[in-house]
Write a structure and sequence with these properties.
Number of strands: 2
Number of helices: 4
Strand content: under 5%
Helix content: over 70%
Length: 185
């Protein structure tokens, strides 16, 4: 793969990742529900959803920091700092952020699907006692579905970051002479 294609691909996937993470954060922040008895539930009431939002914001902040460097590198095929630290920072930073996003995706999907099952069973039990709260059940399910959609956008951001991580590995190895480097002996 040529240097220009790697740099351009890294830039595009960083932009797509940033958009996905921003969408995830926006979807999570606007996730709230008010039940028939007046009780309000927001994403802040589910600790795991706060963690999902945190991972999205951490990933978005990292991508915002990386974006100017990626634009410069894609346009000029040169690094702003020529001491070799940026390919190393890209390599390790991309790996770390990918892992952080992966934990957010796992936690978000796990809590959403578990709570969805619990809520369905809970409202079914209430129905056996002739307590019908179908409206509240549908509101709770919609709340969790929005959490799933937000986590799905986080997963899209994770996929973009994993691709960037692979490309930064390729880029790091090409800037260092490759994995199997010949010695001059």
């Amino acid at each position: 793969m040529a240097k220009q294609e790697v740099a351009t691909s890294m830039l595009l996937f960083r932009i797509f990742g940033l958009l996905a993470l921003a969408g995830s954060a926006a979807m999570m922040v606007t996730n709230h529900v008010t039940y028939s008895n007046g009780i309000k539930t927001t994403f802040k009431d589910v600790i795991t959803y706060r963690y999902v939002l945190s991972t999205a914001l951490i990933g978005a902040a990292y991508l915002l920091v990386q974006l100017p460097f990626a634009i410069y590198y894609a346009c000029t095929e040169k690094r702003i700092f020529r001491n070799g630290c940026l390919p190393e920072f890209d390599f390790y930073g991309d790996k770390l952020i990918s892992l952080i996003l992966a934990t957010g995706v796992g936690a978000g999907f796990a809590i959403s699907f578990e709570l969805k099952t619990f809520i369905r069973d809970f409202f079914d039990v209430l129905l056996t006692f002739d307590i019908a709260l179908d409206d509240d059940k549908s509101k709770a399910i919609k709340f969790l579905n929005r959490g799933i959609i937000s986590t799905g956008l986080l997963a899209l951001g994770l996929v973009c970051m994993v691709i960037v991580s692979v490309l930064s590995s390729i880029n790091r190895n090409s800037s260092r002479g490759g994995f199997f480097r010949r010695s001059n002996n």
